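input
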Amino acid sequence: MRAFILSALFVLLSYLGYAQTCAAPLVVDFSSKSDTTVTIGGLHRNGNCCAGTNCISFSVKLNPGTDLVSFDIDQHAASGSYTVNCGSAISTGTAVCISGSSTVQITFCKPGNNVVGYVITAYSSITKSSNLSLRQGCTGAMSVTGFQAASTTWTSVYPGTTGAYNSYLSQTSGVTSINVTPQTGSPAYIDYKVSGTESAVCGVTKSDTIRVYTFPPLTVAITPSSPLLCSGNPVTLTATPSGGDPSYTYLWSTGAITASISASTAGTYSVSVNDQTAACGAVTQQVVVVAPTTPTASPATICAGYTATITATAPGGPYQWYDSAVNGTLLSSNSSYTTPLLNTNTTYYVQTTNSGCASLRSAVTVTVNPDPTKPNISSP
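output
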């Protein structure tokens, strides 16, 4: 919004035939941000500034973090030089150190009065890495550019006394990149100050701060811890994470990305859970889903009017015999079942039950044949 207002103001001034002097430079406000740039167009050079003619001048308000400014024009065939506070000539496009200044005056003079775009850039010579979010016990990297490496020092400044958490650092001096590993029980955040001598234009000593947010270690449990497929019905597996920096993301070995899944076959299932910390990676947990073994039994063949004894042979009881594949009447709780007298083919069903979990039922058919000892009487 500020850039829009600024551009609109410049266009308005140009349209009104604004006559510029060094005593009334155009104001460019960069005070809210250390690194920023603006292109200003639609203005004629018609002032007499810094012992020059055909000039345009800008008063640039600076952020305390700004070290360097540069001035350029968008028509390089019209290149030239500019001055800062009416000092020595500086080639357009070349940065100059203004560290410690709150406002500088940039002046550009050149014969003619053609309209060009004026590009003003303000920036810090030092760039730090972003703040970190780490689970306790995980390692992340902090870095800074623009310092002479040998001059660089790192130290914790909050909470507690200076250096209270330096033991979490891989190194405290002589490098521009270090690792930090917050330990279990770390405070919610730690501020680390990095200081050194700027290595480019200014050569000044500067400091900046990187904050490391810490979170308890991430763990994940799967419930139920000993899942069973009872009667062939699927079981719901739920991953429950704790610690870390919520919200959580999930990836199951089945490809599902939800907190819970439905498992319908026996086997090993795993889930990888991650949080919002950038450097620590996912935590994986697995569980084994067990299905009670379906018993086996041999079919039987009898003559009509007789009974049959059918026996389950595996995997080892306890067994239950039913007259239906689902629900039905419990006929026996033994490994063998003796049928009543049968005259037609009949199917029975056997299952095992372990820890209150029933297996799938096996069908066992008793085939009933006519009794050859009895005469076959037919109607005349």
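quick obs: The first strand starts at residue 26 and ends at 29.
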